[in-house]
């Protein structure tokens, strides 16, 4: 089993980057941090980073989400923090929910009920909680 895949929004240009997530206390030119940010033991500031194709990007830790190991009905990877439309394969019931990590597993959560079983639903990513925070209420 390989390393877990993550995504996060870069702090310099707000673009999404996908790869290996880690925290570092070191100042590093590749992360886009300023030299005056200094070392962790001087400033107390950690950098949250994602490494992609041998380049390290500093990311906003609030936007970091792990790949859940599954694709939506259109072949798009699903990540923690995504907002999805879900349709029950057996009943046809549809709802909109956010992908969260609870009770040791990824689940789809909405205001009514939580912890839907993935295998019972066809999902489609329609946004995420970082770029579209009100999408769940609209959907």
Description:
- 6% of the residues lie in helices and 45% in strands.
- By secondary structure, it is mostly beta strands.
- It folds into two domains: 6-62, no CATH class; 66-138, SH3 type barrels (Roll).
- Strands 4-3-2-1-5-6 form a six-stranded antiparallel β-sheet, with no helix packed on it.
- A hairpin with a 2-residue loop joins β3 and β4 (55-58).
- The longest helix has 4 residues, at 40-43.
- It is elongated and about 50 Å long.
- The N and C termini lie far apart (36 Å).
CATH fold naming of the largest domain: SH3 type barrels
**Morphology call:** elongated
Strand content: 35-45%
Mean pLDDT over the residues = 81
* CATH architecture classification name of the largest domain: Roll
How many domain modules?
2
Give the number of helices: 2
The CATH class of the largest domain is identified as Mainly Beta
**Strand arrangement across the biggest beta sheet:** 4-3-2-1-5-6
